[in-house]
Design brief:
With 230 residues, the chain is an all-alpha fold. The protein contains seven helices and two strands. It has a domain of 93 residues.
Length: 230
Amino acid sequence: MAYCSRCGIEVQSNVDTCPLCGAPIQRLDAEPTEPAAFPDATSMPGRQIRHLVWLISTVVLLSAGLSFLTLDFMLSGRMSWSRYPLTGFGVLWVFITLVVIIARRPIFVIAGQAIATAGFMLLIDFYDGQLSWFMPLALPIIAIATGGSVLVWLVSRLSHRAPAMIAAATLVACGIGAVGMDLIISIYRDERGLSWSFVVLGATIPPMLFLLYFHLRLRRRVDLSRVLHT
């Protein structure tokens, strides 16, 4: 049985309004209806996301390249300065394509990006009319950067992606790479001796040693993630 909230008389359970005063009957003992559940959001797989990013990047780079090329022909009647941004867009497209196609094989991504970067530098040097700085300057620097990336990848793989070891390997690559680039630049400029690279190398040694000590000794006794979160 139910009761009218206005006049208080008892009414039948199947009555919606009070027969005396006409007020709607409120049934407090009725089971509340559950709200309709929202449909489960379907997440897009990672491979589809990468392909979508690749497609959008391709359209954007192609549109920008055609715009630069059209503007160059309108101003000079030939392809002159637009070849520089077009070459850069092409290399960037190669980088994105490598990541999308072989994302799970970093060593091939590193090799492909090194080749693409070397090709970009070679074309930029060729656009000046003569190959002057690519072989003695750009190519050795690209080799040093590639070697540092391979070092970080090897350490990451051998240490099972330990954050401290990856950070230590990155610091080592930066320090040694700075020394190598300083030496290459000084030889290219006919200057014997190193200058600024010792500052970079000295700055990377203390945190690198601490990260190695943390990975080998402290990580078993100190939960760094818990310390940082608290």
